[in-house]
Design brief:
The chain has 150 residues and is an alpha+beta fold. It is built from three helices and seven strands; from the N terminus they run ββββαββααβ. The chain has a seven-stranded antiparallel beta sheet. It is globular. The model has no long low-confidence stretch (mean pLDDT 93).
Amino acid sequence: MLHRAPMGALATVSDGQPFINSNLFVFDEAANAIYMHTAQAGRTRSNVEGDRRCCFSISEMGRLLPADTALGMSVEYAGVTVFGTITVVASAEEQERALYLLLAKYFGHLRPGEDYAPIVPEELARTAVYRIAIEEWSGKRKEEAADFPG
């Protein structure tokens, strides 16, 4: 069975060139921030260190919506685009909190210390955790009635 939680796409900039890659993410409503992680070294990390501006997009596709004409064909969808600034989280405490939020989102049925070993400092040293401070966002959705013939 596929897990259907949406992934996000992080857009950063390097020397004026856009760069986009897919990431698992978690939204922390209390902090009005999005967290994600990558390896310590790589293009995302170097882009973030060079230019903190970013854009993050999350989308989900629903049912196909057939119609009698090509123009009328459509699909259900929902999406959000976030604009903000991204930083590498320096505090080990915040890194660990963000990683546990990610684990709870994608592996909520598993418990640290019971189903898997808790996060240790050596793992934090190998991981770059990012926080997007949300400055503005925009969303769009199309959804039909449940009985729509899709």
